[in-house]
Amino acid sequence: MSPVEYRTILKYRLMIPLFPVDEVCPVCHKACLDSFGEHAVHCRELPGFKYRHDLVRDVLFDIFRCAGISAKKEAPVNFLTDPLEGRSTLRPADILVFGWVGGKHAYVDLTGVSPLVGLGGSAFTVGQAASGKVTKHEKACLDNQHVFIPFAFDTFGFLAPEAVDLLSRVQRVMHSNVMTPRSMNVVFKRLSFAIQKGVAAQLVARLPTISM
Predict the structure, then answer these.
(1) Which domain of life is it from (predicted)?
(2) Cα gap 39→203, rounded to integer Å
């Protein structure tokens, strides 16, 4: 992580304004590019929108590989669709873990959100981020002899219970297969760093030059 990224993510976590004033997003023209940077990490039309998601996915996949767990990234499963888009939009699994639950393959789907999305209503929990995808994909997975595992995290690094359970099991496997002092807490530390690195990169890309 560069010094600029480190300073930026520190300000974000402490809720120190990153941008001088609130203004309309110059890219989507639909929302406020708020001074705390929330829109900058969630606008789907800003360059690098998927960077955080893909970085965390890649790190999680590498953790599976280092632990000796058989998995595939962006694996085609040929049965998941968006009902609004039709069969032409078959979605690959972010990570497909082979034989993970009772001999069934596990479809791991990553979702990253902000904890501030719940400030206008009921209390926010990270698990809320995955509820829609569970409703959409869990039955299709079960019908095709797969297990659906939502992996939800927020921009401050908190993980949903399903994500914690998955990483805890991966960590136990790593301890069994790779017994070194460095393997003790590497799973959660690597994921936490990847999340913060991804958020920092998205924010830095939107910072005014004078802020760097």
Answers:
(1) Eukaryota
(2) 9
pTM of the model: 0.81
Q: How far apart are CA 90 and CA 88, in angstroms?
A: 6
One-letter-per-residue 3-state SS of 68-95 = CCCEEEEECCCCCCCCCCCHHHCCCEEE
Edge-to-edge strands of the sheet including 71-75? 71-75, 93-101, 104-113, 146-154
Strands 104-113, 71-75: pairing is unpaired
pLDDT tens column, 110-124: 988 877 654 444 554
Cα separation of 19 and 34, whole Å? Answer: 7
Q: What angle do CA 131, 132, 133 make, to 5 degrees?
A: 95
Residue type, 164: V
Q: In the chain, at which residue ranges do the beta strands (DSSP E only) sit?
A: 23-24, 32-33, 71-75, 93-101, 104-113, 146-154
